[in-house]
Amino acid sequence: MTWLVTGGAGYIGSHVARAFLAAGIDVVVIDDLSSGVAAFVPEGALLEQGSLVDAAFVDRVFAEHPVTGVVHLAGYKYAGVSVQRPMHTYTQNVTATVNLLNAMHANEVPSIVFSSSAAVYGNTPAEFVTESTATAPESPYGETKLIGEWMIADQARATGLRHTSLRYFNVVGSASPEVSDTSPHNLFPLVFRALESGATPKIFGDQYPTPDGTCVRDYVHVADVAAAHVEAAKKLDAGVALERAYNLGSGSGVSVREIMTEMAEVTGIPFTPEVLPARPGDPARIVASGELAARDVGWMPAHTLHDMIASGWAAARHTAAAAVPAATAADR
């Protein structure tokens, strides 16, 4: 049994690849390394460097490897930047998924676990987001994730493809010091890089309709997210019918300002964050119930906020010492 992990050289993707290998499942990784890092691909996984936008490349990978299932994480994931680069985002996230689904069908690959996003919900008024909460994405990034879900569901109706989509919230922390989040936009790496350089961490917006004016998010540890992928893949391999989508949420929210306070305590570096204007496309509050995922794929968030920050900080310092480059907004 071999599963293809697209985007497997990225922060989340490499954790997913590691989790599959730990479960005794062979892994092939597709990544163009525009934001991924080759060193993040775990030993034992085979890296095929190239873009899903290149249909001929995708076809070759499937022809050369006995792929039995796919975890699809590759894509352009910067919600705020996607507002300025909508066509680029659609090409990377929609065209690429079309190529992937075509190759899967041509090679009779029966199962896919899709990396979706909480961004499909937009700025929902719901106190807790469930899978039945109305989808109303507020950025091209969120729109492309929802379109990806639609395409996979349509393909399933047409061909019998087994599938599910996992809607991620804020994925943080690290299960290995060698793998860190190198995003130029995610909160944790932004704060870590600022602290490492002696700069002041920044809060983007403090006028949101939340208790302290800063965005509220549902933070989950990357190791817990990776484990959910493995369980979903096992279910699909066994022919178990899963729901079309699952939230991977903890059911509790933490504000950006609260994160900053905990960051100072964990790192031992006191600071007062600088407040900047809000970024376009950022919803005020996203907190999700993970009850459905707990029922069907054993979703069990096992890490505390302290765990998330401490493990993320350790990985960030390791990355800085190893001179691993951060991704840039212009990637791909």
Automatic annotation (TrEMBL):
| InterPro entries found in the cross-reference section | Epimerase_deHydtase, NAD(P)-bd_dom_sf, UDP_G4E
Query: Which of UniProt's keywords are assigned here?
Result: Carbohydrate metabolism, Isomerase, NAD
Q: What class of enzyme is it?
A: isomerase
Which domain of life does the protein's organism represent? Bacteria
Q: Where is the NAD-dependent epimerase/dehydratase domain?
A: 3-249
Listed pathway(s): Carbohydrate metabolism; galactose metabolism
Q: EC no.?
A: 5.1.3.2
- Which chemical reaction does it catalyze? UDP-alpha-D-glucose = UDP-alpha-D-galactose
Q: Which organism is it from?
A: Subtercola lobariae
What is an example of a GO molecular function annotated in this UniProt entry? UDP-glucose 4-epimerase activity
* Entries under NCBIfam families matching the protein: galE
User: What cofactor does this one take?
Assistant: NAD(+)
Give the GO terms filed under biological process for this record. Answer: galactose catabolic process via UDP-galactose, Leloir pathway
For this protein, the record's SUPFAM superfamilies field holds: NAD(P)-binding Rossmann-fold domains
User: Which Pfam families does this chain map to?
Assistant: Epimerase
Q: Which family does it belong to?
A: Belongs to the NAD(P)-dependent epimerase/dehydratase family.
Report what the protein is called. Answer: UDP-glucose 4-epimerase
